[in-house]
Amino acid sequence: MKLGFELSQATVAKYLVRHRRPPSQNWRTFLKNHMQSLVSADFFVVPTITFRLLFVFVNGCYGEEFHEATGWLGIREVLTAPQSPWQNPYVERLNGTIRRECLDYVIVLHETGLRRVLKLYFEYYERTRTHLSLDKDAPIPRRIQPPELGKVVELPQVGGLHHRYERRAA
Asked: How far apart are CA 10 and CA 151, in angstroms?
């Protein structure tokens, strides 16, 4: 279409080469290609119902801009050795929380399903889940809802795995 030809989608699909598997690089190649710009990354593995392994990256931050931003924000960077999970207890705790509160209760069918579940969980984690270090508030704070706003209703989140409670007028 961008070249001035008018073809139907069926014609394109008929002559398009189909691959048995989507082309992808292995982990060693991926890490080698990104080693120069890799600042912090951690991942864990999630098996699917068909025993395929999906890798979930957590805390991926790349580039010199991140290093500069930490300086501007007054954040002190802590460098850890590769393949040393005991050196980064914060991300290890996050990984454990994701497993205990979400992935231990779902059956993962495929990558798209895993992405959907994790997106819902992260939304719950940032907007609803209370954190002791934040004085029992969420990272994205919520205002206190006085009783005048109505009765308390339960709103299911993450497919009903967790719930949010809010006041709503009847």
From this structure: 54
Report the C-alpha gap between 157 and 146 in whole angstroms: 22
pLDDT in tens, 90-126: 778 888 999 999 999 999 999 999 999 999 999 999 9
Residue 70 exposure: Cα atoms within 13 Å on the Cβ side: 13
Nearest to 67 by CA among 57, 58, 78: 78
Question: 71 has which bridge partners?
Answer: none
E strand map for the chain: 38-47, 53-62, 151-157, 162-168
- What is the rounded CA–CA span in Å between residue 47 and residue 122? 19
Q: What is the pTM of this model?
A: 0.63
CA distance 128 to 99: 18
